[in-house]
Amino acid sequence: MRKKHGFTLIELLVVIAIIAILIALLLPAVQQAREAARRSACKNNLKQFGLAIHNYHDVYNMFPRANFETRSTGDNSYWGWSAHSMLLPYFEQANITGDLDFSLAVNESGAGTPNWQMITRRIPVFLCPSDQGPSDPRGGGNSYVMSAGPTLYWGHSGALRGGVPLSEQVGVFNFRARVRIGDITDGTSNTIAASEQIASGSGSPDSKLAESWGPSDFSTINLSFPTQTQMQALGTACKALSDAASATGSVHRRSGNLKEQIHWALGIGGQTVFNTVYNPNSTFPNCVACSGCWSTDNIGVYTARSRHTGGVHVLMADGAVRFVSDNVDNTTWQRLGGRNDGQIASLDN
Q1: Distances in whole angstroms, Cα of residue 159 to Cα of each of 61, 93, 122, 298, 315
Q2: Could you give the C-alpha distances from 62 to 4, 57, 58, 173, 259, in angstroms and in order?
Q3: I want to staple 135 with a disulfide (CB 3.0 to 4.6 A). Which of 105, 154, 201, 337 is the partner?
Q4: Per-residue pLDDT tens for 68-121?
Q5: CB-based burial of residue 233 (10 Å sphere; 0-12 exposed, 13-18 middle, 19+ buried)?
Q6: Are 317 and 191 in contact (CB under 8 A)?
Q7: Among the listed ranges 154-163, 262-271, 332-341, which one has the minimum average pLDDT value?
Q8: Is beta strand 273-274 parallel, antiparallel or unpaired with respect to 144-147?
Q9: Chain mean position to CA 316
Q10: 8 Å CB contact between 288 and 296
Q11: What does the pLDDT look like over 28-81, one tens digit per residue?
Q12: What angle do CA 89, 340, 317 make, to 5 degrees?
């Protein structure tokens, strides 16, 4: 009789165990490779922003403002158009620009109108592949935010304390202050022009930090270059509020009747603007001063955030893209956001 050969049960289990171990070892490497590719694409998107803002400057001899009010916005400047909207032709999106009516405020483009059809379009260069996109698919989405510098940004006279005056709108992209290359006296290679934000919402712990929580007390906070002591106290109070907000209903999300969406058309904090007050990916949430209003129509803190491990990409005003650690010195981070404070900081130091 011939003896039959085959695998024993133990041998089969050993082979399965080895395969499982190999998969466990290889899967993180595959995920890291995919994230490296996404991170590279995200960096390239910011480089496209650098080309766009400099091409815009060549044409208009200034960078775009962060908020463009129209004759129909009146006191509702939170419906002003964003710098992203002005930069569309330089992203090869002139077809969208041609179909937009910039004489109208953003909120005057209701569902079914040509404006609405355009501003709800997703534009790939505005979205970082590492992020998951907005939680509401109707929103245009936006992963990249222009730098208002170390200032509370909002300049409208109806804001708390009368808003941020022109003298303290110290970033490259401001509420009303116009900036030319020559105005960046700290040096374009030492001044931040744009960075990243978390555009997606639903469910992840870091997305809660990226939402705007209020009301918070800004009465003792410097309008520009706030001290670390001031910001620590504000962040602690705002964090405590945000922990309870979902139960009390006092949370104010990002954008009025576009709420819970991130939108590239709106020139407001947390949508297309951030400030260099808290460090990147701060454990303190975005904080706003308003109560009973939309989350972004007042002074506030809007932090650079990303889903990349350890920091965020930033676009410098000279067009270079750098990666900045979450642990950057806060004074350095604030000075990198200011364009002409005379306290020159560098990421190479």
Answers
A1: 30, 33, 31, 5, 29
A2: 84, 5, 8, 10, 32
A3: 201
A4: 876 555 555 667 889 999 999 999 988 888 878 888 777 665 555 667 777 778
A5: middle
A6: yes
A7: 154-163
A8: parallel
A9: 15
A10: yes
A11: 766 667 777 888 999 999 999 999 999 999 999 999 999 987 655 555 566 788
A12: 30
Better-predicted residue by pLDDT, 44 or 8? 44
CB 255 within 8 A of CB 295: yes
* Mean pLDDT estimate for the chain: 81
pTM confidence score: 0.84
Question: Quick check: bond before 64 cis, omega within 30?
Answer: no
Across 303-333, b (16+ Cβ under 10 Å) vs e yields bbbbbbeebbbbbbbebebbebebebebebb
The angle subtended at Cα 278 by Cα 170 and Cα 131, nearest 5°, is: 105
Segment 200-219 shows an average pLDDT of 66
Hey, what are 272's tokens?
């297309």
User: Among all chains, which residue has been given the structure tokens 């410097």?
Assistant: 222
Render 236-294 in DSSP notation, one character per residue.
HHHHHHHHHHHHHT----SSGGGTT---TTB-SBTTTEE-SSSPTT-SSPEEE--SSS-
C-beta pairs of 238-244 under 8 Å, 24+ apart in sequence: 238/213, 238/214, 238/284, 238/285, 238/287, 238/301, 239/283, 239/284, 239/285, 241/213, 241/214, 241/216, 242/208, 242/211, 242/213, 242/285
Pairing of strands 321-325, 311-316: antiparallel
Q: How far apart are CA 175 and CA 160, in angstroms?
A: 15
| Calpha distance 256→213 (Å, rounded) | 14
* CA 101 – CA 220 distance, rounded (Å): 40
Indicate the pairing of strand 311-316 with strand 300-301.
unpaired
Dist. CA 211–CA 251, nearest whole Å: 9
